[in-house]
Amino acid sequence: MVFKSKKGDIAGNALVVANVDRFNMVKNKLSDIKLVNDFMGYYTYTGFYENKRLTLSWSGIGNTSLALDTLELYKLGAKNIIRFGSTASINKNIKPGSYVMPISYSHNNGGLFNEEIKDNLSISLSADYDLLKKFDLNLKDYEHYITDAFTTDSQKVRTNEFIDKLNKLGIDNLDMEGSALYLNSKLYNFKALSVLTVYSNLITGESLVVYVILCKYKPPCYQ
């Protein structure tokens, strides 16, 4: 248990964010905001964004932390959970500053996935198609891509050899939390999607400064 919230505190639509600066940026855009959890540092607020009730939750960094956070949100009433984060591109055509929405995630075996699934089988970690279509339309004025993504638990594995291998398998971008979100959505039957800002391209060496990542691009919203 990482939340001390009660039913009704959490909106049906939830946004999870790991970067503290991005979290505060989104929080400042909410109206009628109420702190509904601060236990164990999982700060969570419910308010309104563009006249729609929305819960914003700090998810922590890494798969395990995000898995805890999103499970609590689901238990308390969240039906649609969006991860608003950042990612590194390994596709030379996907430039820093664009958005990506992974339609699927791959990951290394072991750890969280073996413990949650328990059986020696593979679950297709895919986005909710209705959410994907909706956000594809919402982002029509921005450069954005629907991608196949890979989650790594450590940035140390991101060697040139590893990146080249993933690139040949059709992987477009790397992050550190997305596969846990999609796993939980399958295990607990809620809708999920990652909407990510590309902050760097590991193939071309291009990258964005922090200010541009945080301030130039508005947070995704529910329509």
UniProtKB/TrEMBL annotation:
<dbReference type="InterPro" id="IPR000845">
    <property type="entry name" value="Nucleoside_phosphorylase_d"/>
</dbReference>
<dbReference type="GO" id="GO:0003824">
    <property type="term" value="F:catalytic activity"/>
</dbReference>
<feature type="domain" description="Nucleoside phosphorylase">
    <location>
        <begin position="14"/>
        <end position="204"/>
    </location>
</feature>
<dbReference type="InterPro" id="IPR035994">
    <property type="entry name" value="Nucleoside_phosphorylase_sf"/>
</dbReference>
<dbReference type="GO" id="GO:0009116">
    <property type="term" value="P:nucleoside metabolic process"/>
</dbReference>
<dbReference type="Pfam" id="PF01048">
    <property type="entry name" value="PNP_UDP_1"/>
</dbReference>
<protein>
    <submittedName>
        <fullName>Purine nucleoside phosphorylase</fullName>
    </submittedName>
</protein>
<dbReference type="GO" id="GO:0005829">
    <property type="term" value="C:cytosol"/>
</dbReference>
